[in-house]
């Protein structure tokens, strides 16, 4: 059927995730489910580590178009294992798969970061095909941000690199992306080149029996038909792709085709556009692509509110909230080094959603005001409608109150997260300052001593004594730094706590020689405990706590003082305490001694950096399922203590 006027539909479709379609790598099989089952079975029998990583990446690729969460799971496993065995090719592919996973979630920042890491690794390896694919993916990222010139430049370079690699199957993917980025060009020559690229991509897909790429090409060719006014033929082609994708388990393909049809139908003001929106939502929920449906859910919500269908409106709001919570979990599961960046993106998206919701609410209220004016006129003629209108008003009031409470809750959560981020940022700056100070001091001392020796300002014997003192301080600093590194390792998602039986008295005796300040001040350490008392703990983590307790006690004790270490069993736990005879702890500092706030406000006993070490001690003890604390003694000094589960008796 030909329409009298040409309807330019492609610009409308830019509002849906059209370019994400081309992120899906191709595969040469029509049996999606059978391929997955075969690969999973083969993976169980694979002994070679590199082949195992390749299998994980292959499964991640296959799952991209049907089950997104499984894609992310296998890609994450591939990246971890490839890094452990130094398998660069597997790591490059795994990073690119993770980038695609986060692109579909969608989390564009994490997606870009993983793509960029893949690009860097591919360049170092000289892998032209992987360089081309990473450049193509980053070009898509720039296209999303509206940075058209950067996107076009990168897709052109990607096309050149894939020619060098002589990989036709991947070339088809790059050509299809080239079409997407140039299809809406107003220049006739550019559009002709884009259509030629699409035709070549379709030919390559047929030549290699690339089922998924064939379906992609049909969807894009349907767009060209729609642009040419052949709407009925285009719609028929898209419906066939949707049915084929659904039958073979390609949920994302069916989702995209449904959104494409919904976009056309909406542009043509046809009522069955809602049917395709609902289909798209169903496929998204089946395949874990809910993050891509935010705008669709908002449209469905607005339509339900317009029809006064509060039941479905509440359902869509609930889905949207669930998606936002899932997005937050996805961001937290990203690499720890990208968490701050991802959190900023989450706050930005949340604020945008909040702004959009408020604007929609104002528009709804404005519509209600208009309605009320007509209602007052209509009331003079139709008094019989008064009862039904009063019911409607009551329902609208309940919805408004409910939405206001939800909005207030979201604002409170945002405020709390912002405050926590500020505290964490202050702590990070304090930690960096401490590490820089502690490592700079021994180096400055060594430089000063070498200058003195060079200028004959001090004799060599004196310089030797000074160097020995610097060596002692450097060893102490290194112990602290080792503890900080271990603590940073425990903050990562891969840390696994594996406790062992530790005899407290043996640990204390091993720690005393390492605390050089005890010998310098001639401090006596009294150990009051049974030799058999032992706890379940990590040896290095517990020794870090012991070194800090003894170092702090020695630091604030007088020359020749006594430090008492006690261990007792109480209420099925082992309590260990270290008491000194120093000046005690400032009572204003004591309540927050082990918290992040203390690092920026504490004065205490004027111990530079002690707050950071105590925070790490607290984190170590809590990871070992224990408790830590400190109190001032009745007469003088302070006592630091911790409690841990006892080791089982042998």
From TrEMBL:
It is an enzyme of class 2 (transferase). Residues 434-648 form the Histidine kinase domain. InterPro entries: HATPase_C_sf, HATPase_dom, His_kinase_dom, HisK_dim/P_sf, Sig_transdc_His_kin-like_C, TPR-like_helical_dom_sf. Gene3D superfamilies: 1.10.287.130, Histidine kinase-like ATPase, C-terminal domain, Tetratricopeptide repeat domain. The chain crosses the membrane at residues 371-397. PANTHER family: HYBRID SIGNAL TRANSDUCTION HISTIDINE KINASE C, TWO-COMPONENT HISTIDINE KINASE. This is histidine kinase. It comes from Chitinophaga dinghuensis.
């Amino acid at each position: 059927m030909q329409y009298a006027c040409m309807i330019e539909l492609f610009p409308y479709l830019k509002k849906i995730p059209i370019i994400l379609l081309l992120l899906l790598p191709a595969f040469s099989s029509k049996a999606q489910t059978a391929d997955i089952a075969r690969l999973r079975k083969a993976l169980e029998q694979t002994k070679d580590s590199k082949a195992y990583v390749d299998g994980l990446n292959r499964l991640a690729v296959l799952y991209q178009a049907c089950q997104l969460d499984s894609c992310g799971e296998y890609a994450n496993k591939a990246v971890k294992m490839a890094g452990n065995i130094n398998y660069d090719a597997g790591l490059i592919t795994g990073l690119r798969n993770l980038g695609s996973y986060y692109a579909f979630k969608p989390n564009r920042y994490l997606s870009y970061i993983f793509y960029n890491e893949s690009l860097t690794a591919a360049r170092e390896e000289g892998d032209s095909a992987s360089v081309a694919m990473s450049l193509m993916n980053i070009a898509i990222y720039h296209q999303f941000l509206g940075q058209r010139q950067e996107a076009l430049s990168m897709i052109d370079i990607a096309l050149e690199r894939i020619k060098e690699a002589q990989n036709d199957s991947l070339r088809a993917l790059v050509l299809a992306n080239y079409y997407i980025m140039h299809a809406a060009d107003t220049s006739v020559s550019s559009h002709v080149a884009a259509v030629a690229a699409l035709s070549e991509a379709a030919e390559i897909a047929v030549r290699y029996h690339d089922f998924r790429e064939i379906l992609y090409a049909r969807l894009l060719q349907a767009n060209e038909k729609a642009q040419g006014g052949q709407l009925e033929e285009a719609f028929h082609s898209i419906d066939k792709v949707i049915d084929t994708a659904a039958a073979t388990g390609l949920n994302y393909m069916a989702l995209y085709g449904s959104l494409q049809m919904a976009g056309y139908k909406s542009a043509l003001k046809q009522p069955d556009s809602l049917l395709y929106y609902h289909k798209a939502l169903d496929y998204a929920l089946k395949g874990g692509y809910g993050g891509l449906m935010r705008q669709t859910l908002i449209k469905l919500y607005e339509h339900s509110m317009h029809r006064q269908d509060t039941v479905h409106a509440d359902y869509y709001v609930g889905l949207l909230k669930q998606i936002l919570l899932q997005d937050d979990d996805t961001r937290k599961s990203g690499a720890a080094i990208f968490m701050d960046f991802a959190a900023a993106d989450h706050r930005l998206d949340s604020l945008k959603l909040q702004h959009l919701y408020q604007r929609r609410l104002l528009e709804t209220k404005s519509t209600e005001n208009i309605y009320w004016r007509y209602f007052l006129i209509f009331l003079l003629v139709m008094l019989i409608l008064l009862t039904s209108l009063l019911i409607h008003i009551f329902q609208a009031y309940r919805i408004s109150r409910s939405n206001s409470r939800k909005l207030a809750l979201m604002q409170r959560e945002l405020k709390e997260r912002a405050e926590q981020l500020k505290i964490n940022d202050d702590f990070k700056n304090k930690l960096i300052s401490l590490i820089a100070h502690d490592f700079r001091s021994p180096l400055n001392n060594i430089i000063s001593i070498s200058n003195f020796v060079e200028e004959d300002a001090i004799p060599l014997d004196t310089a030797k004594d000074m160097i020995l003192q610097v060596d002692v301080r450097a060893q102490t600093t290194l112990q602290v730094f080792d503890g900080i590194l271990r603590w940073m390792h425990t903050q990562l998602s891969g840390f696994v706590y594996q406790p062992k039986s530790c005899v407290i008295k043996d640990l204390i005796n091993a720690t005393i020689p390492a605390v050089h300040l005890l010998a310098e001040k001639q401090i006596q350490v009294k150990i009051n405990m049974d030799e058999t008392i032992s706890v379940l703990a990590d040896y290095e983590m517990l020794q870090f706590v012991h070194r800090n307790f003894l170092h702090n006690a020695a630091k604030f004790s007088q020359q020749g003082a006594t430090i008492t270490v006690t261990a007792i069993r109480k209420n099925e736990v082992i309590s260990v305490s270290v008491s000194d005879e120093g000046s005690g702890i400032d009572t204003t500092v004591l309540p927050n001694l082990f918290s992040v706030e203390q690092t920026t406000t504490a004065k205490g006993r004027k111990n530079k950096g002690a707050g950071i070490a105590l925070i790490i001690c607290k984190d170590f003890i809590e990871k070992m399922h224990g408790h830590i604390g400190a109190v001032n003694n009745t007469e003088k000094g302070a006592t630091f203590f911790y409690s841990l589960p006892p080791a089982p008796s042998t």
